[in-house]
Amino acid sequence: MTTAGTGVQIGILGGSGFYSLAEDLRPVEIDTPYGAPSAPPRVGSFAGREVAFLARHGENHEFPAHRVPYRANLWALRSLGVRTLLAPFSCGSLQRHIAPGDFVVCDQIVDRTQGRQQTYYDGPQVHHVSFADPYCPALRRTAVAAATAEGISAHHGGTVVVIEGPRFSTRAESAWFGAFGGDVVNMTQVPEAPLAAELGMCFAGIALVTDYDAGVVGDAEPVTHEQVLAVFDQNVTRVRNLIGRLVADLPATQPACCGDRAGPSLFHEPS
Length: 271
Prior knowledge:
Distance between the termini: 18 Å
Helix content: 10-25%
Largest sheet: 12 strands, mixed
Number of strands: 12
Structural class: alpha/beta
Strand content: 15-25%
Number of helices: 6
């Protein structure tokens, strides 16, 4: 294994399915103050750029959403030098006009999780991160343009309601989430987004809609975990193509829009 400090600027939080697209992947051993990440980050060439991949649920999908070591994952990627972080994820639709198979480039979050550790500033250092706009506006625009170039149906903007899991929502809960403005529902964007903000990273949440949530389409049969995974597997090529196009289109340096949200320095920059 190589060690931290590689200077990779682009990170992808996703499934191990991305590994097959990268060349000469090198696992990176990283020690974080928050324990081990879900899996060793793997660094390699993807779409002509050096990228760090990290499987958020582990390489064998062994971490359910409420047990993912989020602080270790984000810390590990930032320790490698990552400044732009792409977070593709599967979700349920809360609105009839957002259909299974669509992508949503999210711009807002409603947090319905319970007790997750979502800050690095537990004291004695204190920092209140600006979080009015959870997702990087410049990165969202690039993501939408990449989807258009790939001929992929993508909604520009959308609110993701983040639930604790591991259970799915009741019909009443999903109807309620949709009624107060939620567009999609997911279990991982919190605390990934606030942790990325504290570390000064540009962050994009790119949702693949796998199903209508339980309370959206009448008496439709509720989705199962196996069905979600099956739909995601059926669309993994589209996800890869979109992320590949986005990686290729990213500017060489981080836009000056998110870095100033970071709090006091928590670790040394990679050399």
